[in-house]
Amino acid sequence: MKTFIIAGGNIDYDFVKKYLLENMHASDVCIAADAGIKVCEKLQIEPRYIIGDFDSLSQSERDMMDVLYGTYNDTEIITLSPIKDDTDTEAALQLAFKKTEGEIYILGATGKRLDHTYGNIELLRQADCHGRDVFILDTYNRIRMVKNTSCKISKKKQFGKYVSIFPVGGVCHHVTVTGMYYNLEDATMEGGNTLGVSNEIVDREAEISVGDGTLLVVESRD
Q1: Could you give the C-alpha distances from 47 to 8, 56, 176, 182, in angstroms and in order?
Q2: Which CATH number does the domain 2-138 belong to among 3.40.50.10240, 1.10.560.10, 3.30.70.1150, 3.50.30.20?
Q3: Confidence category of residue 64, pLDDT binned at 50, 70, 90
Q4: For domain 146-220, which architecture applies?
Q5: Looking at the DSSP assignment, which residues form a beta bridge with residue 76?
Q6: Span 116-173, pLDDT tens digits
């Protein structure tokens, strides 16, 4: 089982449609976070959950949501107070942790608002606490965090040509990178520089591990 959260950031409809057609199966769960419901409606995706304060929807859009996903539908609508500490995307992620299993993919988490984008990237820290793999996806990037463990990226299945790593929340110790053009062995990454930017996979599979600390792993394409 996988979970796909559709958030209210910038959406490339062609990319999202193609990605979901190729990767979403009948047993998977879709959660629409606030304005993400408009994406679901446009792409004719029926979410299992809709969650948000819906302040980004007009009254007519809210009425249409209630008509399409009301009492006689399998979709559960969860309305939040607009006065809250967490964003709708974080609420959707917490719901996914509680109600679903397996990998979680967040689409619509990036865009023009750098504060929202950064806040959503920060949410990836919660993956380790729940023992789940959580990814942010957009047209050009696939992003995850790796804490005190490792991840592998197959060259055949990599998201883009470039792989970059950044220390998050402090110094990372015992960083090892194999299978890439620039490898590292038991390195220390302190941040404040561009050491981990724009590496490339050269073997069948690359592995990134960190013994102590958290790495942000970004797969990118032009």
Answers
A1: 14, 18, 40, 42
A2: 3.40.50.10240
A3: confident
A4: Sandwich (2.60)
A5: 49
A6: 999 999 999 999 999 999 999 999 999 999 999 999 999 999 999 999 999 999 999 9
